[in-house]
Amino acid sequence: MVQVHLAQMHNRLSTEPLINIGSAMAGPEAQVVADGEEGIYLRNKGLGPGRVASVAYFLDRAPGATGTADAVAFDKIADALVKTGIVNSLVTDAPEMDEYIKENEQIKLLLVRSSKVMKREEWIAFLDKRFGMTITYCSIYDDCSTACYRNGRSSIGKACK
């Protein structure tokens, strides 16, 4: 009986996803996602696929605000960046509900080529202070976790609240 329980625990852990929301900036100390690209990306650093259960995006969210009542549409955030002239063009790819993010898969959420950033200080402020998101994802066993990005930092689980 104990061996069966341990085998089940092992199976769950060996297929557990770990979704990370990160930022990439150009520069010598920065993590650049691809050649000359910078912005926000999602990456599954876990051992199994993660199914997107929910996702919410925030713009100028007040510190400590919770829930999705102040969530905004992803395309409005992308449009605002281009319309305000912060960037010339933007690569976007928002995850859909029930989409699976495979292990080691990376999604370019909001990325721009460094040469297309027109207002550098505003772009950095946007990534560090204005943009936020939460994503709840589940394993193939329906064990769910939440990752969030707020104030330029990525957190997992309880730290998102």
Averaged pLDDT, please? 81
What structural class do the secondary elements suggest? alpha+beta
Helix proportion of residues, in percent?
10-25%
> What Rg is obtained from the alpha carbons, in whole angstroms?
17 Å
What strand order characterises the main sheet?
5-3-7-8-9
Strand count: 9
- The residue ranges in which pLDDT falls below 50 over 5 or more consecutive positions are 63-67
* Strand content range: 25-35%
Which shape, going by the Cα principal axes? elongated
- For the report, how would you describe the main beta sheet? 5 strands, antiparallel
CATH architecture: Sandwich
Number of helices: 3
* Termini gap: 37 Å
CATH fold name: Immunoglobulin-like
Order of helices and strands: HEEEHEEEHEEE
Q: How many domain regions? A: 1
- Classified by CATH, the class is Mainly Beta
